Amino acid sequence: MMQDRLSLTFSALADPTRRAILAQLAQGDANVSDLARPFLNEMSLPAVTKHLKVLETAGLITKTREAQCRPCKLNGENLKLAADWVDQYRIFWEQSFDRLDLYLQSITAEKKGKKHVRKSK
């Protein structure tokens, strides 16, 4: 189940429009019209609504209904799942970089310890 949720999350995050919508919602709740406004020069309202549906299906946003208004809010739980998944690889890379740093320090120390001797003809 977690892998399916991660797949949906990463698929939703793959699109720059959806990431921009999430960035808007990180500033606070907004209705569909407000979320769509920055994109209406590039796409139609139904296209923005489809992006919102992808985000909602992935569990990244929650959309409710209040009379004629459709307020949306960020759902951080699934973002945290994705961040936790990525974090395990951050730890791997940090450990790899630490090992590389130790190796480079040892090579530098060896070079400093050896004197370059020129051969005479």
TrEMBL record:
Membrane-spanning segments: none
The HTH arsR-type domain, residue ranges: 1-94
Domain of life of the native organism: Bacteria
Molecular function via GO: DNA-binding transcription factor activity
Residues spanning the signal sequence: none
PROSITE patterns: HTH_ARSR_2
SMART domains xref list: HTH_ARSR
CDD domains in alphabetical order: HTH_ARSR
Cited NCBIfam families: HTH_metalloreg
Protein name listed in UniProt: Winged helix-turn-helix transcriptional regulator
Organism (species): Undibacterium fentianense
